[in-house]
Recover the amino acids of this structure.
């Protein structure tokens, strides 16, 4: 049961090789007959600010929303002859009340979401694609998504078809009362290609973080770019910016789109301006197909402020003052729009990603993983550090707190990055290491960190400015988390050279764990929504495993002094684990807290790293006993987190699923799939839900779109 769950982190390269070549017959979601209705569907998910989802099964049943729940309107219609149908968004004008028939739920792949619709013998396919490929930094950091529109005639006669799409300025403001301004640009091309038309909208004020840490951005610009005609000159495009009602009504009634509105700026909710595009696909004969492609991008201008210094998005390479200039962004979008390699890479990756997950653990697991992909990548941003002449990564604690790079959010998300890109995980940890090591003076507004344990986070998104006394203190939690993640990256990359400036601060952390364990006392852990849990057995396990992980790091250091320290930490961890087993023992399982009775339990998800890192701190029978007990606590939609409630955490139950037999893994995976497929709470994949009802906890204020959902990939770290 246990040996099959062990892995050496250096197997990362072989795992990628599996993704690249092992699956001969590629399949797509749903082909094996497993239907899946995601709780919310990713449309344009680029980073924590640019994150637009559909909260309905049918794309015409609700307006797209930012993950926070605010409407970020997009509308889609089609004219077949003189008949108007909607393919996106609810009825907003009298002229187009009918919706196309949606042909099943959306198909959600890692980088792509696909919808199909039908009306009058015409099948419209809409593909939303964000090329967030972790092994292609240029694409991962590309602030662009694509919308492909394809119409195929399945009828018996030719019909004239036009397709319409618009997006409001709601994506560029944190309040609809804010003034927005807009522009249009024509991008000439060479003799072989059609000219491009670019539309841009953004707040008039353009003040960085003027909304005071709002989850919705109100600086930077939203862009939409498309060719004026396709290569075959069979599809003609026209675009404008004007009132949503005027643009939609004109299209629905078969009239020309209104002229470009020159009366702005004005409030976003005043005659709501939209970036409107019409694609005239002409007369489509039976069995013929016409296509159009758009690029939809957001230029943040400033991606993050790190202790006084504004860091640009990677593509700007340090330019945080060029926001009013559109040339760089339009050039990038124009090149991306015409680059056929991008959709090919995404499509190939989507298929291989899905099939690798399916081969590992079945179709339901592959469907969950495909839904989780953009939720994790969309919680990160890639910036350029001009001081170090390299890129850095930051991750937002979406929905639960809004913090920058919360360590106990990166930790549950880390299996996703460990499997696919250990280097991305390393780049996420570097800003934290620089802060903890008091290197922030180089950035203009230094704050000196003086705590003997690892930091909790860096600030409130997008500002890193947190003093140590302002931290949400989780001493054992974050120290254990950092050691585990650093150890995995070191084993995967077989390199600890970059840690040379940090051994002293890590020694301080290691000594703190020794002093704080085997009983962590009354501390917060990552499950802080339940409040402090004194003498927490799972937290103690994290500290013990983290101590052993640090021993592993020291062994890789290679010096005689480091090897002596490694021996000390390893032996201490082993001794503490024996005390842990004795004090936590409840007969057929281990308790929630050392000081509680044997009827209590909790998911001991932190033990998984003993297996994954090969630390051998705990004997196999600990895992066997715990895993067997979890099965006795299964509800319809999963295993409760602990004795205190029926709710669970999606990430943690998928971790404990890996600790036991394959049968246990499948039972828990099936339960999580059932939750995602049936939950009435239509928010991006929640990691906190009721195992007896499938409702997300606190649906209005609960956990949504959080990157911790990357924890479901723990299975991919096992042999």
């Amino acid at each position: 049961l246990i040996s099959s769950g062990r892995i050496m982190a250096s197997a990362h390269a072989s795992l990628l090789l599996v993704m690249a070549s092992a699956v001969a017959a590629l399949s797509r979601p749903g082909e094996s007959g497993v239907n899946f209705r995601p709780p919310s569907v990713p449309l344009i998910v680029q980073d924590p600010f640019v994150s637009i989802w559909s909260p309905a099964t049918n794309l015409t049943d609700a307006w797209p929303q930012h993950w926070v729940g605010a409407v970020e309107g997009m509308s889609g219609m089609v004219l077949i002859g003189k008949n108007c149908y909607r393919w996106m968004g609810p009825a907003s004008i009298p002229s187009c009340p009918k919706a196309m028939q949606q042909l099943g739920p959306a198909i959600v792949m890692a980088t792509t979401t696909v919808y199909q619709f039908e009306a009058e013998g015409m099948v419209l396919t809409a593909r939303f694609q964000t090329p967030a490929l972790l092994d292609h930094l240029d694409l991962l950091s590309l602030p662009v998504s694509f919308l492909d529109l394809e119409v195929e005639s399945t009828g018996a006669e030719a019909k004239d078809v036009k397709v319409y799409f618009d997006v409001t300025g709601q994506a560029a403001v944190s309040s609809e009362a804010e003034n927005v301004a807009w522009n249009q640009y024509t991008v000439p091309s060479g003799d072989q290609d059609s000219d491009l038309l670019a539309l841009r909208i953004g707040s008039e004020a353009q003040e960085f973080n003027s909304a005071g840490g709002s989850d919705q951005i109100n600086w930077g610009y939203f862009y939409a770019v498309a060719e004026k005609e396709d290569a075959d000159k069979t599809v003609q495009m026209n675009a404008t910016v004007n009132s949503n009602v005027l643009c939609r009504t004109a299209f629905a009634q078969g009239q020309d789109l209104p002229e470009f509105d020159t009366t702005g700026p004005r409030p976003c909710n005043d005659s709501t301006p939209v970036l409107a595009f019409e694609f005239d696909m002409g007369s489509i004969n039976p069995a013929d197909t016409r296509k159009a492609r758009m690029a939809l991008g957001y230029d943040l201008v400033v991606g993050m402020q790190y202790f006084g210094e504004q860091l640009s998005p990677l593509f700007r390479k340090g330019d945080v003052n060029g926001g009013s200039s559109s040339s760089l962004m339009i050039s990038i979008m124009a090149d991306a729009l015409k680059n056929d390699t991008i959709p090919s890479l995404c499509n190939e990756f989507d298929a291989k990603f899905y099939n690798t997950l399916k081969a590992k653990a079945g179709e339901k697991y592959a469907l969950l993983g495909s839904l989780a992909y953009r939720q994790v990548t969309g919680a990160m941003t890639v910036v350029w550090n001009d001081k170090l002449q390299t890129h850095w990564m930051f991750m937002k604690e979406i929905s639960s707190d809004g913090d920058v790079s919360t360590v106990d959010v990166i930790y549950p998300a880390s299996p996703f990055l460990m499997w696919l890109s250990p280097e991305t995980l390393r780049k996420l940890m570097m800003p934290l290491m620089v802060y903890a090591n008091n290197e922030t003076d180089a950035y203009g507004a230094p704050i000196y960190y003086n705590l003997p344990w690892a930091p909790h986070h860096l600030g409130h998104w997008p500002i890193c400015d947190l003093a140590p006394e302002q931290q949400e203190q989780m001493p054992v939690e974050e120290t254990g988390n950092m050691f585990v993640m650093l150890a995995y990256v070191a084993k995967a990359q077989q390199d600890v050279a970059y840690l040379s400036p940090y051994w002293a601060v890590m020694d301080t952390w290691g000594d703190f764990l020794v002093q704080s364990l085997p009983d962590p006392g009354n501390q917060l852990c990552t499950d802080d929504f339940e409040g402090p849990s004194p003498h927490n057995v799972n937290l103690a396990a994290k500290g013990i495993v983290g101590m052993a992980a640090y021993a592993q790091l020291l062994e890789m250091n290679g010096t005689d002094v480091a090897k002596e320290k490694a021996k000390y930490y390893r032996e201490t961890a082993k001794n503490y684990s024996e005390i842990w087993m004795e004090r936590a023992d409840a007969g057929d399982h281990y308790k929630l807290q050392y000081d509680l009775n044997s009827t209590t339990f909790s998911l001991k998800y932190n033990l998984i790293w003993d297996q994954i890192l090969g630390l051998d701190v705990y004997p196999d029978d600990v895992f066997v006993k715990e895993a067997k007990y979890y099965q006795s606590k299964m509800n319809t939609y999963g295993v409760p987190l602990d004795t205190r409630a029926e709710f669970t955490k999606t990430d943690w139950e998928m971790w404990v699923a890996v600790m036991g037999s394959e049968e246990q893994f499948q039972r828990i995976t099936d339960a999580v799939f059932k939750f995602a497929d049936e939950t009435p709470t239509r928010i991006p994949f929640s990691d906190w839900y009721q195992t007896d009802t499938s409702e997300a906890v606190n649906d209005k204020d609960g956990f949504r779109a959080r990157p911790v959902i990357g924890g479901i990939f723990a299975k991919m770290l096992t042999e």
Summary: The chain has 16 helices and 26 strands. The longest strand covers residues 273-284. The mean pLDDT is 93.
